[in-house]
Amino acid sequence: MAAEGAASPRLLIVFYSRGGSVETLATAIAEGAQGQGAEVRIRRARELVGPEIMDRVPGWRDTAARMNALYEAPTLADAEWADGLLIGAPTRFGTPSTELLAWLETLGPLWLSQKLLDKVGSVFTSTSSPHGGMEATLLGLYPTLAHLNLVIVPTGYGDPALFRAGTPYGAASASFGMERRPPSDDDLAVARYQGARVARVAQALRTPR
């Protein structure tokens, strides 16, 4: 919890999700952060293709409409507001989805003005298979966070659930292809731990700044 009299840490969770797994992890991360007294904004990156492409994937258009109604699109103002950023995207051939990367590329003005300096950064993902590139995706996001001047906070092994799920780099889940399994209880425990840890570190870094 935030120290008595101290301002609550402010965390921005930006994700892209097509089937809902990354969305579920994002909400669990928010729960963990809020349990530490953090103020949380959840935002969803938007599609970069039109309806004619989305309609080629069953359910994509309807799911996107549902999520876009629930979550605003992320803005520069959101990132400037936050003390920490948690970034989540599904794996696409071993790399983060383009929709999430496109939003990260809009942060240039904040990088140039040093407005992200010493804020916390952390990442999470979901894949179709257990060895479908989740660690490559998470590690692939960290160089961008470093360039943006963020202080990288991974999950490590600070919670017992990390010996059963997730990765030491960030929360993750596998949907097992057409089975479309949702994140497991252990996956969600890792995500909640990640949110709590980031909130604590953001609070610790916030006071000097």
How would you portray this structure in words?
- This protein has 209 residues and is α/β, with parallel strands linked by helices.
- It has one domain: Flavodoxin domain (Rossmann fold, 3-Layer(aba) Sandwich), CATH 3.40.50.360.
- The chain contains eight helices and seven strands.
- The chain has helices spanning 21-34, 51-54, 60-70, 76-81, 98-104, 108-112, 134-147, 185-206, and strands at residues 10-15, 39-44, 84-92, 95-96, 120-127, 151-152, 172-174.
- Strands 1, 2, 3, 4, 5, 6 and 7 form a seven-stranded mixed sheet that branches.
- Strand 3 (84-92) and strand 4 (95-96) form a beta hairpin.
- The model has no long low-confidence stretch (mean pLDDT 93).
What's this entry about, in short?
With 209 residues, the protein is of the alpha/beta class. The chain has helices at 21-34, 51-54, 60-70, 76-81, 98-104, 108-112, 134-147, 185-206; strands at residues 10-15, 39-44, 84-92, 95-96, 120-127, 151-152, 172-174.
List the helices and strands and how they pair.
Layout: E1 10-15, H1 21-34, E2 39-44, H2 51-54, H3 60-70, H4 76-81, E3 84-92, E4 95-96, H5 98-104, H6 108-112, E5 120-127, H7 134-147, E6 151-152, E7 172-174, H8 185-206
Parallel strand pairs: 1-2, 1-3, 3-5, 5-6, 5-7
Antiparallel strand pairs: 3-4
Give unreliable regions as ranges. Answer: none
Identify the CATH class: Alpha Beta
Task: Please tell me the total number of domains.
Answer: 1
CATH topology value:
Rossmann fold
Strand residues, percent = 15-25%
Structural class: alpha/beta
Based on Cα principal axes, name the global outline: globular
Helical coverage, percent range: 25-40%
Please give the oligomerization state of what you see: single chain
- Which radius of gyration do the C-alpha atoms yield? 16 Å
Q: Give the number of DSSP strands.
A: 7
List the helices and strands in order. EHEHHHEEHHEHEEH
Contiguous helical run count: 8
Query: Superfamily at the CATH H level?
Result: Flavodoxin domain
Largest sheet: 7 strands, mixed
> Do you know the CATH architecture?
3-Layer(aba) Sandwich
First-residue to last-residue Cα separation: 19 Å
Please state the average pLDDT score. Answer: 93
